[in-house]
Amino acid sequence: TSVSGVTRWLTPDKVAIALSDRFKKDDHFWFTVFHEIGHTLLHGKRLTFLDNTDRADERTPEGDRSEEEADAFAAQTLIPPEHNAAYRRLARRPMPFDNIKAFARQAGIAPGIVVGRLQHDGALPWTHGNNLKRPVRFPHNGPAEDQPQ
């Protein structure tokens, strides 16, 4: 399916967040985590959110703004506002990749997350920088090759 995450309130005090392993890279995984957390903090407790990457046909009970708000929450959590000026400078000149690595160190985040944001914002082609994204392993995928079973 095209679903990356789901947020559903089980009771007024208990929420469930489910994530798929659709893209299996750190940029997409952490954005989805914080996007779903954004729904829990910003939107109604009686709503269920099924999030996919095709926003053209998506409608929610609160209208399209709830997805935009959750996206903004995730983006601001991953790259906090105090790093906006440095990020804008990086977006104007993301290459060489050492620029991305230096910004990631300064902001205290993984370089793959920065690459994903630059790609999303159109500052870096989707084909560039993917080697800086780390794979995310989920328990159902089994142990890594270098780990005993």
Concise synopsis of the structure shown:
The chain is built from five helices and three strands. With 149 residues, it is α+β, with helices and mostly antiparallel strands. Strand 1 (3-11) and strand 2 form a beta hairpin.
Task: Characterize the structure shown.
It is built from 5 helices and 3 strands, in the order E-E-H-E-H-H-H-H. 41% of the residues lie in helices and 13% in strands. A hairpin with a 2-residue loop joins strand 1 (3-11) and strand 2. It folds into 2 domains: 1-78, no CATH class; 81-138, no CATH class. The mean pLDDT is 84. It has a 3-stranded antiparallel sheet, with helices on one face. With 149 residues, it is α+β, with helices and mostly antiparallel strands.
Task: Based on the model shown, name its key terms.
single chain, 149 residues, alpha+beta, three-stranded antiparallel beta sheet, 3 strands, 41% helix
